[in-house]
């Protein structure tokens, strides 16, 4: 059986990909900084706790892999990208990975990288489809693009068979024990609503985001692993293609939380954006993932209302006598 290694298996997206892969008859190696509970399924799963900024630990973690799913993200995500530690995780480990792989003879392994649609910078048009010129404006997006470029060069040099999947705004629940919860905008607003706080939107609420549930994103990675040949060497955008207005999303969150708690829905209000808000936060994003769909047959299956309902339900379901956080 082929060996698939997931780097960042305790992360929000990484744990979802690990759960999806565990349902296949493969050898699965789940690598994270701390030990995680192996998900159920027919896969022969091995859990490895490792600090992948240690080059030797990284080499051990990927040894013998037929395919590697790269979903590492510094703690704090884009908010801490200016730190040296974040750059080491977001970019430095990718450099080490291609060096480690290049030092081993044999068939180049497949490496599927979790990039970000925001690497393009301020969207030049709607929808974006991956053909745009990348002009990242934040440290996080610059690091993500640089890591993708390292992977593309290593692919051109024959060291790896690299694929970059640029992710949209991902949201949803995370049922995996010990895994990181969603820290994105949908879950953040759901937590505020659970605490009885108003939901505030920068601007007039008409900015749109392309929201995709985390299980659909995991399905995209399994689809890429199943049909990689036509994807190798490129970057591919994932999205629902609908662009949901944030005011509508926040009102949906408030309503679902009210339905689950029996309380009146919290208010949704618009406020002036702070001066430090990046330009990308104030521009709408819709994604055309037709190129990826045409090759893999993938498409999102979980609707926004269903995804929000599941997210809210997970937050309000008691765990060991306490509400989820």
Automatic annotation (TrEMBL):
- State any single GO MF term: aldehyde dehydrogenase (NAD+) activity
Q: Which Pfam families match?
A: Epimerase (PF01370)
User: Which residue range or ranges hold the NAD-dependent epimerase/dehydratase domain?
Assistant: 4-238
Q: Which residues form a coiled coil?
A: none
- What are the GO cellular component annotations? cytoplasm
Query: Which InterPro entries does its entry note?
Result: Epimerase_deHydtase (IPR001509), NAD(P)-bd_dom_sf (IPR036291), NAD(P)-dependent_oxidoreduct (IPR051783)
Protein known as: NAD-dependent epimerase/dehydratase domain-containing protein
Q: Which organism is it from?
A: Amycolatopsis japonica
Phylogenetic classification of the source organism: Bacteria, Bacillati, Actinomycetota, Actinomycetes, Pseudonocardiales
């Amino acid at each position: 059986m082929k060996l698939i290694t997931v780097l960042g298996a305790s992360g929000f997206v990484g744990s979802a990909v690990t759960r999806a892969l565990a349902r296949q008859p493969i050898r699965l190696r789940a690598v994270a900084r701390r030990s995680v509970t192996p998900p159920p399924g027919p896969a022969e799963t091995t859990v490895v706790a490792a600090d992948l900024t240690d080059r030797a630990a990284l080499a051990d973690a990927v040894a013998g892999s037929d395919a590697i799913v790269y979903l590492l993200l510094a703690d704090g995500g884009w908010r801490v990208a200016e730190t040296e530690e974040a750059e080491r995780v977001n970019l430095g480990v990718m450099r080490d990975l291609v060096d480690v792989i290049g030092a081993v003879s044999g068939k180049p392994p497949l490496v599927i990288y979790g990039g970000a649609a925001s690497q393009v910078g301020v969207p030049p048009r709607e929808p974006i489809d991956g053909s745009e010129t990348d002009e990242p404006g934040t440290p996080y997006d610059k690091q993500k693009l640089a890591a993708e470029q390292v992977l593309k060069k290593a692919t051109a040099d024959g060291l790896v068979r690299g694929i970059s999947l640029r992710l949209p705004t991902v949201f949803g629940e995370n049922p995996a024990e010990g895994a990181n919860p969603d820290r994105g905008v949908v879950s953040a607003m759901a937590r505020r609503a659970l605490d009885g706080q108003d939901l505030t939107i920068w601007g007039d609420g008409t900015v749109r985001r392309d929201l995709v549930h985390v299980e659909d994103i995991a399905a995209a990675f399994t689809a890429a692993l199943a049909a990689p040949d036509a994807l190798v060497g490129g970057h591919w955008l994932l999205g629902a293609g609908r662009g949901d207005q944030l005011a509508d999303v926040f009102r949906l969150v408030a309503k679902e939380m009210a339905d689950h708690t029996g309380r009146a829905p919290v208010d949704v209000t618009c406020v002036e954006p702070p001066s430090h808000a990046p330009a990308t936060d104030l521009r709408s994003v819709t994604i055309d993932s037709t190129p990826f769909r045409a090759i893999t047959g993938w498409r999102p299956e979980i609707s926004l209302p269903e995804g929000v309902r599941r997210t809210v339900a997970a937050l309000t379901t008691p765990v060991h006598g306490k509400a989820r956080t």
